[in-house]
Design a protein that fits this description.
By secondary structure, this protein is an alpha/beta fold. The protein contains eleven helices and 19 strands. The strands form two sheets. Strands 1, 2, 12, 13, 14, 15, 16, 17, 18 and 19 form a ten-stranded mixed β-sheet that branches. Strands 3, 4, 5, 6, 7, 8, 9, 10 and 11 form a nine-stranded parallel β-sheet that branches. β15 and β16 form a beta hairpin. The chain starts with a strand and ends in a 6-residue tail after the last strand.
Length: about 375
């Protein structure tokens, strides 16, 4: 592609540091190779083919997705062994059946007898069986059957005994780690979740269900895994390929590992209220965050600036203390925002500008929709 400098891009724009992405991806691959655990990277953060290839080490195999649009997108581009890691929506059963019949391996996730019955009423063609993961809630409080309730084992048994259906594994989101602060806190939370799922696997084995896999995932828990996670079959983190300010605050990463930025330009000076206006509103950054001393993002290289508020296309910036020196921020000057939540920010952009050493080297186009 033609030489384009990052500094010449029109703003607001989402940029991705290719070297940091590769380093983050390789570190996670090596971490779990050493533990003897299969990494099934989640695609939901970036939703691009190029980043998916990097995260899978070039194999284009063994991924998790959060939408059926992602599943179809990756399948169309040669990926296989795809886990649709979302409680099965009943309006999407037929499309899931088609993907199950087209791919070597396509997996669905359920947490109810209603969803299981829908699979039973749509047998797969060609001698294939539904590959089903049971979603278990290990005190995260989102989707899944609570791990300690008898209903969890009963549903596992029902899946296990169903004709045309295979209980492939037990899937847990280690979302509790998002309330952590620091590596030791992350590890304590990850240990608790790991203990819950391993105990559930023992209960399954005692009930005659030996063979299903076990998988937990979250970027904090997989950035600092506990030793007992070596007993798992798989892990499924996703955000780690980009990281963000939220992950830095939790303790998953250092700020220098964050691979993404939103670039914005100064479009106005307002001395009467001691503020700058920039061309980045929530439509380019998202409204996630706001809890930081620096507002909705970290303004790189300017620790005394705060992104105070945003409307759809405007951002207000002010100093944390003192008066703005407007001569340092002329109209048209570019500022670099490190996002609080990379998943949400990436969703705001139709194109990712991928750079190395100040030059744009690739453009990635994410899939969209559900």
């Amino acid at each position: 592609m033609e030489d384009i400098l990052v500094s010449d891009l029109c703003t607001p724009v989402f940029i991705v540091d290719l070297q940091k992405v590769k380093q983050n991806a390789q570190a996670m691959l090596e971490r779990f190779q050493q533990m003897g655990v299969q990494l099934r990277p989640h695609m939901k953060t970036h939703k691009t083919i190029e980043c998916g290839e990097i995260m899978t080490g070039g194999s284009r195999r063994c991924i998790a997705v959060s939408t059926l649009a992602e599943a179809a997108f990756y399948a169309e581009h040669g990926f296989d062994d795809i886990l649709y890691a979302y409680p099965l929506p009943l309006d999407k059963v037929e499309r899931c059946a088609q993907l199950s019949e087209e791919l070597v391996l396509f997996h669905v996730l359920i947490d109810s007898h209603v969803a299981l019955q829908q699979l039973r009423t749509r047998p797969l063609k060609g001698g294939k069986v539904w590959r089903v993961w049971l979603k278990l809630d290990c005190d995260n409080g989102r989707a899944g059957v609570p791990h300690s309730e008898p209903a969890a084992l009963l549903l596992a048994q029902d899946i296990f005994r169903s004709e045309g259906v295979e209980l492939t594994g037990i899937y847990v989101h280690c979302g509790n780690t998002y309330s952590c602060s620091g590596e030791e806190h992350i590890k304590a939370s990850a240990q608790k979740t790991t203990t819950f799922i391993l105990h559930f696997m023992e209960k399954m084995k005692a009930a005659g269900m030996d063979g299903p896999k076990s998988s937990i995932g979250s970027t904090p828990s997989c950035s600092h895994p506990v030793q007992d996670m070596a007993q798992l079959s798989e892990v499924h983190p996703g955000n780690y390929v980009f990281y963000d300010v939220q992950q830095m605050m939790i303790g998953s990463c250092k700020l220098e590992q964050v691979a993404v930025r939103v670039l914005t330009r100064v479009i106005g000076h307002y001395p009467s209220r001691n503020q700058l206006l920039v061309d980045c509103g929530w439509a380019a950054l998202s409204h996630d965050g706001g809890c930081l001393p620096t507002g909705y993002a970290i303004i790189e290289g300017h620790p005394n600036l705060r992104l105070l508020s945003m409307t759809q296309e405007h951002g207000r910036i002010e100093p944390i203390s003192g008066n703005l020196h407007y001569e340092k921020f002329p109209i048209g000057a570019m500022l670099s925002l490190i996002p609080y939540h990379a998943c949400a920010t990436a969703m705001m952009h139709a194109i990712f500008f991928v750079h190395s050493e100040g030059k744009v080297v690739e453009k990635w186009t994410p899939t969209r929709g559900w």
